[in-house]
Amino acid sequence: MRLTNDFVRVKVPATSANLGPGFDHAGLALGIFDEVEMHAVVGETFVQVMGHGAGKVPEGEDNLIVRSVRKGLEYLDMPQVGLRMVARNRIPHGAGMGSSAAAAVAGLMLARGLVGEQSLSLDEVFQLATDIEGHPDNAAPAVFGGVTFSWMDKSAKTVVRPPREDLGAWVLTPKFEVSTKQARAALPQQVPLEDATFNLSRASLLALILSGQAPLEYLMDATEDRLHQAQRAQAMPSTYDLVQYLRGQGLPAVVSGAGPSVLVFGTLDPQLVEEARAAGWSVKNPGITAVGASMEASREGGESPVERF
């Protein structure tokens, strides 16, 4: 067997998981995309990172995108090759916006492009990305787009719904980062039955609303949580305070993923946006996108334009 293509370009969306009560299973795709271009070459692997993570993330075999390409090629029983890659990262790192899921999915989609899209289904990309991530809540919307509700059986499974046209989404991101490992360390191993029941009722309502089967007027109730947001407050107090402030203003705000970004459904008043930016928050209005990971590939030949800096 041999590679079908030697040039691949992929785009993968940012994602937000949990969405309040949907801990480790609810997610959605945001209209912010990382883009990666890659040539298969003879020789060493080089990665040029532009945007978020530039000068910080590994630029060789330890890069998560590269490791995910390797996993995809290994899964397909294909030979490993040298890679020259440009990663244009628009998804902030350590912000709770699915940057690691995007990197894993990007690498797997790159492997898919090298071999040919018929060789690796999107469901297989989802399975492999879940293996890399450890849970499917970000992997599902990164692959499929839209709003997703995922779970683990013997394999990862998900239901994908198109985003509601009448529901906007804003993201507020601080200048500091919080690792997913750090955020998870703050969670208790056991929770009261009352809190578990509370979240189950809210998560069920949230699924109905985001699927268009229940009215938006219940979204404040549907985004309530007792399992993880308050428990992580010590690791990111300004995030928790902002969520509480926005909810006090009648806005359905939640911690995005493991934080520290804040996801707000609906519309933000321009004055509130100005105040948040003045306080040091980056404010974006990406919306919820139906577009998941995409790929284009070709056999170009020649040398990669990627330069080693």
TrEMBL record:
Its EC number is 2.7.1.39. Its main location: cytoplasm. GO terms for biological process: threonine biosynthetic process. It is an enzyme of class 2 (transferase). It holds the Pfam family GHMP_kinases_N. It is found in: Cytoplasm. The keyword Cytoplasm applies. One of its GO terms (cellular component) is cytoplasm. It comes from the Bacteria. Signal peptide: none annotated. The keyword Cell inner membrane does not apply. InterPro entries: GHMP_kinase_C_sf, GHMP_kinase_N_dom, GHMP_knse_ATP-bd_CS, Homoserine_kinase, Ribosomal_Su5_D2-typ_SF, Ribsml_uS5_D2-typ_fold_subgr. It catalyses: L-homoserine + ATP = O-phospho-L-homoserine + ADP + H(+). GO terms for molecular function: ATP binding; homoserine kinase activity. Pathway: Amino-acid biosynthesis; L-threonine biosynthesis; L-threonine from L-aspartate: step 4/5. SUPFAM superfamilies: GHMP Kinase, C-terminal domain, Ribosomal protein S5 domain 2-like. ATP binds at residues 92-102. Catalyzes the ATP-dependent phosphorylation of L-homoserine to L-homoserine phosphate. This is Homoserine kinase. The lineage of its organism: Bacteria, Bacillati, Actinomycetota, Actinomycetes, Actinomycetales. The gene is thrB.
